[in-house]
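Why do we care about 3D structure at all? Because function follows from shape, and shape follows, mostly, from sequence. That is the central idea of this module. The next example makes it concrete: a single protein chain, its amino acid sequence, and then its structure expressed as tokens.
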Amino acid sequence: MKKILIIRFSSIGDIIFTTSVIEGLKDNFDCQIDFLTLSTFAPILESNPYINKIISLPKNFNLKDLIKFGLLLNSKGYTIVYDLHGSLRSKIITMVMKNSCLKRFKKPRLKRFLLFYLKINLFKKNYELTEELLNFVDIEKKYYPKTYANQLEIKKCQNWLIERNVSQPFITLVPGSAWSNKLWKIENYKKFLNNVPYNVVVLGSKKDSICKDISDDFNHVTNLQGLTDLRTSILILKLSKTVIGADTGLLHAAESLGIPIIMLSGPTSNYTGGNIRLSGSLQLYSNVWCRPCSKNGSRNCFRTERFCLTRITPETLNNALINILN
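And the structure:
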């Protein structure tokens, strides 16, 4: 039996994409799989039946700590180490893992640079990141990202929501993003919410002030901004009718739980991993010439307005919601 270590430290979406590799390896090879990630993101992988052990790494480890940690992993007898991150942190750890065969995923950095800055597209037409990851580990069959939740924790989450006057059915909004260029306008969300017949839960971090801004005027909207940890957020997604928001990790988490989404795709696209993958999900975007302009929305928009998002109207989103729920 092969003993495999997969490394991906962050972020939410990227870790979720790697779950397709986990299932693919387990389905095609006699193997045991451990997964190394940052402790912040380890809850994503809980209850995954294909993972033998989740290894959590503190974010504040210094160079000496990382080398010691790598030496410890080197003694664990891993046959193969798949470094799916390729960060300085992962390179330091794997540098001292001399007893294992190391395979490091090569990110399409040059292709993305040419696409973002020169608008030269060398990607194949239907580029799909999860397929690239599967090809990297020599798996031809398609596998899709999957996140898991057990019935006990789902029931606890239901009770937690009831205590906050949230009952099913509800839809979930994830309006925030680490990058402001991904944000849809507050007034657009308000116009949309004015015509939503369901209870609505809003998820976001303490920093996502947009959550409060769009929630305050509506009795059917419950703002849980800053009140949920990552695992609770995942469970709320699992209980939702559908999930709406930008190309962010929680949207990909919802799909991996089998929940259809409506993704508001602004500055990102499938060339950056921003695909929808679940039958029933919808992707709203404006096919402007400048899109995509960055991997994650971090690059400042150089146009007079963000046409990739401003051309998505509240009416379009309301119609998409009707379609997805029907």
